[in-house]
Amino acid sequence: MAARSKIFVGTFVHSKTLGELEYLHDTVVAVDGSGKIVAVESNSSADAVSQKLGWTTDEVDVTTTKTAQFFFPGFIDTHLHASQYPNVGIFGNSTLLDWLNTYTFPLEASLKDPAKARKVYSRVIRKTLAHGTTTAAYYATVDVASTNLLADLCLQAGQRALVGRVCMDQLSPAYYRDESPEAALAATRESIAYIESIDPGREIVRPVLTPRFAPSCSAPLMRGLGGLAKERPDLPIQTHISENKNEIALVRELFPPESTGAQDDSYSGVYDAFGLLTDRTILAHGVHLSESEAELIAKRGAKVSHCPCSNSAITSGAARVRWLLEKGVCCGLGTDMSGGYSPSVLEAARLAALVSRHVAMGGDDKAKLTVEEVLYLATRGGAEVVGLQQRVGAFAVGMDWDAQLVGLSTVDAQGEVEGIAEGEEDGNVDVFGWESWPDIVAKWVYNGDDRNTRKVWVKGRLVHERK
Ligand SMILES: O=c1[nH]c(=O)c2nc[nH]c2[nH]1
User: Fold this and answer.
1) Cα 410 to ligand 1 centre (Å)
2) 215: phi > 0 → left, psi -120 to 50 → alpha, else beta; which?
3) Nearest CA owner, ligand 1 atom 1
4) Cα separation, 336 vs 376, whole angstroms
5) CB of 320 closer than 6 A to ligand 1?
6) Which residues form the Amidohydrolase-related domain (predicted)?
7) Per-residue pLDDT tens for 194-237?
8) What DSSP state is assigned to residue 256?
9) Quick check: CB of 247 below 6 Å from ligand 1?
10) Which of 207, 134, 197, 199 lies closest to 461 in space, CA to CA?
């Protein structure tokens, strides 16, 4: 049965450009049964738009914003490890390389148990949807069956996702690694074939090539994955880069330029030498990149997933997002659970703003990111990072309706929250009625959470509703 058409009425906020949000008031957005936006009309009404489209009122569901509510594009989480979700907040004082061995590899390996994988993956999907994440670029584990299960569960829940089986054939405990480069490549092909079989049109889920990071992959595996990337130019690629200084030193030691044919001894040069630095590549972190690396990344059209929560939690460093943007590198945001402790892209946006202020305090005042800029990274920028900028990240005819209804509390003359029933939650953001729309949005960015995420849709389907 085809889904019903939908009409959304009221205030819509989305990014026009990096520095500018557009506020569309008294606007109607019509979404057809396939989840595509077919009309965006300002100063109109649901009836007028329905009539124009030849839709009768009884075949359309209408959702209208109330005071201090607005529709916002769904968030794009450009980097997170679904398999690490149970560990959020558990990192002690570790830094990357000991964090991987102490906390991460044992947990990931344990998800070979299908019951455990189902429990973890079901929860992370529900949790991120509840925070407004409509698209997620997931790392699963080395295990094919549980990676495929993650794709199944995303498809069932309706969360748009890139799902990657993790490739790693060296420098991790023997209980958690690919047996050989050949085995890694075969398992990768198997997982790709499965994910493509469950959603051949790539409407919701798609596979992504996932070399964990250079230290985890032997040269033959990197070469093989580069070959696969060439054979399948439609596949995105995700990996980590230049997150931690010890990691960078390790890459230099493992891949001297004379062994790869790279131009220099940079981390980016290693991926480039193996054909993995492409315009489909999502590079997580990029904290300590050099000038020439940023230039190479821009030249190749590779993208950066900025992960301010993780970069702070496991003490990796403060990535220079303004500098990357000025170099022409496209950036989005990643929660990077569980290096990052929060499932919320809104939190990532807030932390991106704060970390940029730390960069500014280091002497580069123009490094500061505005509310408008971090929301761009969370939506349109992220969409470009995962290669879906034609479909999601904004409200325009021809794009899919991937959206969230944000609801903030309004305060009455007695200082009480209006329209709230006994026992209902109100959230942290109080709107007094005199704020401008940019101020309301700023209050949401700095104080909002999942209590403000009232409804979430992916491709027109309601995938979360806060009761
Ligand atoms: O933040 C990170 N999380 C990981 O799981 C990982 N693996 C390699 N490098 C990594 N960085």
Assistant:
1) 41
2) alpha
3) 339
4) 18
5) no
6) 72-463
7) 999 999 999 999 999 999 999 999 999 999 999 999 999 999 99
8) -
9) no
10) 134
Cα dist from 52 to 7, 38, 55, whole Å: 13, 11, 8
Q: Report the candidate in 83, 102, 84 with the shortest Cα–Cα distance to residue 92.
A: 102
Edge-to-edge order in the sheet of strand 331-333:
237-241, 281-285, 303-306, 331-333
Q: 231 CA to middle of ligand 1, Å?
A: 26
Instruction: Show the tokens assigned to 4.
Output: 């019903």
C-alpha 427 – ligand 1 centre gap (Å): 32
310 CB within 6 A, ligand 1 = yes
Domains with residue ranges and CATH for the chain: 5-73+394-465 (2.30.40.10), 75-385 (3.20.20.140)
User: What's the rounded Cα separation, in Å, for the pair 383 and 393?
Assistant: 6
Q: Which of 7, 4, 8 shows the shortest CA–CA distance to 406?
A: 8
- Alpha-carbon gap, residue 395 to 8, rounded angstroms: 11
Strands (DSSP E) contained in 152-263 are 160-164, 205-207, 237-241
Q: Which atom of ligand 1 is nearest to the CA of 247?
A: 9
Eight-state DSSP code of residue 349? H
Average pLDDT for the chain: 97
313 phi, psi to nearest 5 deg? -60, -50
Q: pTM above 0.95?
A: yes
DSSP three-state, residue 73: strand
Q: What is the pLDDT of residues 366-425, one digit of tens each?
A: 999 999 999 999 999 999 999 999 999 999 999 999 999 999 999 999 999 997 776 677
Q: Is the CB of 372 under 6 A from ligand 1?
A: no
Q: How far is CA 329 from the centre of its chain?
A: 17
Parallel/antiparallel/unpaired status of strands 281-285 and 303-306: parallel
- Give nearest CA residue, ligand 1 atom 3: 339
Among 141, 176, 243, which residue has the most ligand 1 atoms within 8 Å of its CB, making it the best to mutate?
243
